[in-house]
Design goal:
The complex is a heterodimer of chains A (about 350) and B (about 260). Chain A is mainly alpha-helical and about 350 residues long. Helices cover about 75% and strands about 0% of the residues of chain A. In chain B, the strands form two sheets. Chain B has a six-stranded mixed β-sheet with strand order 6-7-8-3-9-10, sandwiched between helices. A four-stranded antiparallel β-sheet of chain B has the order 2-1-4-5, with helices on one face. Chain B has one domain: P-loop containing nucleotide triphosphate hydrolases (Rossmann fold, 3-Layer(aba) Sandwich), CATH 3.40.50.300. The chains are: A mainly alpha (about 350), B alpha/beta (about 260).
Chain lengths: ~350, ~260
């Protein structure tokens, strides 16, 4: 008899749900819904404001501009999913790019080897972050604030402040800057590598036990531990994978700017966090979809490009990004309230 | 009636620095019974069950599972041997759905190459099995197995935690204050679930502060006092006041008046 009473209560709750309530539940279930809507609406608005916006050349340009931040955002997303944050991501990428370019140019290391060393340096830097988070048990924010400075210093010391210029960079390292034509669109290999990384990580997060453990660890680390998940190993693996992704991004960066400069990429950490947050991933961990971060990065790219074409002062771009971030976090808070 | 305990602890001792949590405590759990463990704060209830589940390692003493001595160094060891524990703190991951929670930490992979090479999860198999486990426990209010756990009430969440434990525990299930965070109606659901577990032949150790609940479901009641087993009684031989008196030390019970044998 208790069964029917409980069921009655259930159906009662369903009836009471208002439109706002139903939207809240839908967003809760599909966290990429709101960034996807924002992207579609902004595409439509900018299309309407300036006919040049929809030009395939322009849209290709947006994608190319997004490749670097979009790639960094992959590593940033998996770290944020564990309720962490990485301020050192850009520093790791720049460090790896300097290692790749300088070893090949100045130290005459075979380019394949210097590339692999660069990947190893990035992965090792991620592992160092992971070590400090899991073994020394420091908060990720503090760890990566520290290593952001450490890796930046390493980069400057290693490069002696000198850029490896376009004529000096080994051609192999410039591969990802090359353009291929897909229909009317000009896409760089860097964009394709970014999309491939998104697909691989989206699969790993959704269809493997590792992915599920990443979500569980970020959601409630104590519950995950009691369920038998070795949360320290999960965290370590996340920082390691993220380091590898940042090092892969180093390759994209060299192709994009045709050089390896120790002074670039200072804003990559905040830009990648922006993409992740606009993409609907919760900064509190355990909630979000990695594809959302790609959408988030593209939204920022679209806004910057569209506002430029609309002839507005560039300062408005920064204003728009700020408003987007605050809106995204407001929606996240509202969605999180939906659970009770 | 077999007098062979399924789980037996002999003279467990455990000290945290100068604090002696367990001072030679024993316990026997027989097949198909609900054994309640009660005691005042600091009586050693939690430490006792932590030793049984593997969350703590006793300093001295022996633990036998089905007559064979076991040494659990971590919770996974206990779980691997068939001893499952449900913790007080509603240990579920709120954003994951019910099926994902049931299989958290022991996910199933697709059979064949897909599972081996790409390590793909077998979501449909996990969902189907979860549905059965939930139905087995008679939790009819949970309608959708892909519902996020955070959308459930406290009682339903606890039901998910119990379902997870019972789905995988082949031998013993330990419930640590399963109703502490719940309301009256939800507590009753959990008590019903405990009875259903026992009816399926799974022995249950229930740690609780709530005397009426203990008297409702327990076959035998072990009373801990000052890190020792003060007495083992049954709801038939003793009443609540006597049990509380034993807990506080106001009453002692002769060995011959205690119940060390299964009553079922």
């Amino acid at each position: 008899m208790t069964k029917s009473a409980a069921e009655l209560e259930f159906s009662h709750q369903a009836e009471k749900q208002s439109l706002a309530g139903r939207i809240q539940v839908a967003l809760h279930k599909y966290p990429t819904l709101s960034p996807a809507l924002v992207l579609i609406i902004s595409l439509g608005v900018f299309w309407f404001l300036n006919p040049n916006f929809k030009d395939p050349f322009n849209l290709s340009l947006v994608l190319q501009q997004v490749a670097v931040v979009g790639s960094i955002a992959i590593g940033q997303t998996i770290i944020i999913l564990t309720a962490g944050i990485d301020l050192s991501c850009g520093a790791i990428a720049i460090f790896a790019s300097m290692v790749m370019a300088k070893l090949a140019f100045e130290n005459h290391v075979p380019v394949a080897l210097s590339f692999i060393i660069g990947l190893a340096v990035g992965t090792g830097a991620g592992a160092f972050n992971g070590f400090l988070v899991t073994k020394v048990k420091l908060p990720p924010f503090i760890v990566t604030l520290g290593t952001f400075n450490v890796f930046t210093a390493f980069t400057l010391l290693f490069a002696k402040g000198r850029t490896v210029r376009d004529t000096e960079v080994d051609p192999f390292l410039l591969t990802l800057g090359k353009v291929i034509h897909i229909g009317a669109f000009n896409v760089t290999y860097g964009v394709l590598v970014m999309i491939a990384m998104y697909l691989i990580l989206a699969y790993a997060l959704r269809y493997t036990a590792w992915g599920r453990h990443v979500y569980a660890t970020g959601d409630d680390i104590e519950a995950a531990r009691l369920a038998g998940i070795q949360t320290n190993r999960v965290l370590m693996s996340v920082y390691l994978v993220a380091g590898f992704i940042f090092a892969m991004t180093a390759w994209i960066i060299i192709g994009r700017v045709n050089a390896a400069s120790p002074n670039s990429g200072q804003d990559l950490n905040l830009d990648s966090i922006t993409a992740v947050v606009i993409g609907g991933t919760s900064l509190f961990g355990g909630r979000g979809r990695i594809i959302g971060s790609l959408i988030g990065a593209v939204i920022v790219g679209v806004f910057r490009d569209g506002l430029t074409l609309a002839g507005l002062d560039p300062y408005y771009q920064t204003l728009a990004v700020g408003i987007l971030i605050i809106s995204a976090v407001t929606i996240d808070q509202w969605i999180r309230k939906a659970r009770k | 009636m077999s007098a062979q305990p399924i789980l037996q602890a002999i003279n467990l001792e455990k000290a945290y620095g100068n604090v002696i949590a367990l001072n030679g405590s024993s316990l026997e759990l027989f097949p198909g019974e609900v054994l309640a463990v009660v005691g005042d704060n600091g009586a050693g209830k939690s430490t006792l069950i932590k030793c049984l589940s593997g969350a703590e390692v006793p300093d001295t003493g022996e633990i036998f599972l089905e007559g064979n001595q076991v040494h659990f160094a971590k919770p996974q060891d206990g779980r691997g041997a068939g001893v499952e524990t449900v913790y007080q703190s509603l240990a579920v991951a709120p954003a994951l759905d019910i099926a994902a929670n049931l299989y958290l930490g022991r996910e199933l992979r697709r059979p064949g190459l897909v599972g081996k090479v790409f390590r793909t999860l077998d979501n449909s198999a996990m969902k189907a099995a979860s549905k059965n486990h939930i139905a087995d426990l008679g939790i009819s209010t949970i309608q959708n197995i892909s519902q996020a756990v955070e959308t459930l009430s406290g009682g339903q969440r606890q039901a998910v935690a119990v379902a997870r434990a019972s789905a995988f525990s082949s031998k013993v299930i330990i419930l640590d204050e399963p109703t502490a965070a719940l309301g009256v109606r939800e507590s009753n659901q959990v008590l019903k679930m405990i009875e259903r577990l026992r009816d399926r032949g799974l022995p249950v150790i229930l740690i609780s502060h709530n005397m009426p609940q203990v008297f409702e479901v327990a076959d035998r009641i072990q009373i801990q006092r000052l890190g020792k087993r003060a007495a083992v009684v049954t709801p038939k031989t003793h009443d609540m006041n006597q049990v509380v008196a034993i807990m506080t030390g106001a009453l002692t019970v002769d060995e011959k008046d205690q119940t060390f044998k299964p009553v079922r």
